[in-house]
Design brief:
Structural class: alpha+beta
Cofactor: Ca(2+)
CATH architecture: Alpha/alpha barrel
GO molecular function, one term: mannosyl-oligosaccharide 1,2-alpha-mannosidase activity
Largest sheet: 3 strands, antiparallel
Keywords: Calcium, Endoplasmic reticulum, Glycoprotein, Glycosidase, Hydrolase, Metal-binding
Protein name: alpha-1,2-Mannosidase
Shape: globular
Enzyme class: hydrolase
Distance between the termini: 45 Å
Number of strands: 20
Length: 450
């Protein structure tokens, strides 16, 4: 119904393209007429074990997709969805070329496309601080008359580049990508509040001034903390673990209030800046599992589960007494992500029951003729004609992995690290190939020593 469009419109059974006429403002900054959903979901096909379809998907991306387009896109979104999808796709295409009868035609085309895209993102990093502009034109970079519009970016937007760009450098042997990402992370770290060790949410990339000083673990800041820890896991650089630990202590001291996570002012962390929470913070228990802090992860996940039981889904924002603040639910993956990692860490069948309830809600309230439609308001369960690429890239990936046995998978999932978009990057990127086994042992250690 949609190929080669960026997204499927599940109610009208057609594709969504990036056009001037059909413009939803910032919501469309991820679209670029480059078959977004296909790229974002290639490795989902590997997780599902469908190698013939994966072979076909890679072939379509290689033959049909180009990034030489006069379109302004979100640097953050195209990095995590498209660059991450290309890299994971390349890794698996190469793997199955060498270990199966599929992809025998493959010759590194996805990596070449990833490198091309990486170069197109580089103009965004030409800032005073090294923190990237929020948007870039894939064909023309950044025009001077557009600088003012791109100077403000969120902490998560600027701080969620290191995994993908470092992986690109290590796979392509082009160092500039990783260097730019490290500089951005270093600059962000230098802008933390030195007393509280908290970060704000929005900043000016040239002056380094904070525009929004709210500090939490949800929208606008979430994956920065995630990438501090995961940069250590994937790249083996201890500075990122040290930074994560300092941030984590601050979060647990100021933002964590029992099972709840409430935003505070970064300069006055004793004062809450909001009386509601947003759906994106549902990733946090999963990150706590990776860090080895199980007890608060279980407690926060249980709090979120109570929200799910009350509303069938987690609304985009909800109050401390679980009332709806913003009612939309675009079928986000974060709660299922945390459910999967908690089950993997505890082997508690409770999390399988949680997964079944979410699956039942998806089937009952989101499944439509041509796909799964976002819920416009959890109170009325009406649908919107949207299905973001992350629904297939993450939501159903984590749901499948929750119930899959290791024998059901054609890869060893413990040999990979999940990016914030649910893409799989191999742990051997941190070491030489001959030390690959040691890298795998590090991953297994994280889960066996919780």
């Amino acid at each position: 119904h949609a190929y080669p469009a960026d997204e499927l419109m599940p109610l009208s059974c057609k594709g969504r393209w990036r056009t001037k006429e059909n413009n939803r403002g910032d919501m469309d900054d991820v679209l670029g007429n480059y078959s977004l959903t296909l790229i974002d979901t290639m490795d989902t096909l590997v997780v599902l074990g469908d190698l013939p379809e994966f072979d076909r998907a890679v072939s379509k991306v290689v033959s049909d997709v180009t990034f030489d387009r006069d379109v302004v896109v979100s640097v953050f979104e195209i990095n995590i969805r498209v660059l991450g999808g290309l890299l994971s796709g390349h890794i698996f295409a190469q793997h199955f070329k060498e270990n199966s009868n599929h992809l025998q035609w493959y010759n590194g085309e996805l990596l070449a496309m990833a490198k091309d895209l990486g170069y197109r993102l580089m103009p965004a990093f030409n800032t005073t601080t090294g923190i990237p502009y929020s948007r870039v034109n894939l064909k023309y970079g950044i025009k001077k008359d557009q600088l003012h519009y791109f100077q403000e970016t969120c902490t998560a937007c600027a701080g969620s580049m290191i995994l993908e760009l470092a992986a690109l450098s290590r796979l392509s042997d082009v160092h500039i990508f990783e260097e730019k990402a490290h500089r951005s992370m270093d600059s962000l770290w230098s802008l933390r509040h030195r007393s509280s060790n908290l970060m704000g949410t929005v900043l000016n990339v040239d002056s380094g001034d904070w525009i929004r000083r709210d500090s939490g673990v949800g929208a606008g800041i979430d994956s920065y903390y995630e990438y501090c820890l995961k940069a250590y896991v994937l790249l083996g650089e201890s500075r990122y673990l040290s930074r994560f630990n300092k941030h984590y202590s601050a979060i647990m001291k100021y933002i964590s209030q029992g099972p709840m996570l409430l935003d505070v002012h970064m300069h006055r962390p004793q004062i809450n800046s909001k009386n509601f929470m947003d759906a994106l913070l549902a990733f946090w228990p999963g990150l706590q599992v990776l860090s080895g802090d199980l007890k608060p992860a279980i407690e926060t996940h249980e709090m979120l589960y109570q929200v799910v039981k009350k509303h069938n889904f987690i609304p985009e924002a909800f109050t401390t007494d679980f009332q709806v603040h913003w009612g939309q639910h675009p079928l986000r993956p974060e709660f299922l992500e945390s459910t999967y990692f908690l089950y993997k860490a505890t082997d508690d069948p409770h999390y399988l029951n949680v997964g079944r309830e979410v699956l039942n809600s998806l089937q009952k309230y989101a499944r439509v003729e041509c796909g799964f439609a976002a819920v416009k308001d959890v109170r009325t369960t009406t649908n919107e004609d949207t299905m973001d690429s992350f629904v297939l890239a993450e939501t159903f990936k984590y749901l499948y992995l929750l119930f899959a046995e290791s024998d059901d998978l054609i890869i060893n999932i413990d040999e990979y690290l999940f990016t914030t978009e649910g893409h799989l990057l191999p742990l051997y990127l941190s070491v030489q190939p001959q030390n690959y086994t040691d890298a795998v042992k590090v991953s297994v250690f994280f889960f066996q020593n919780l």
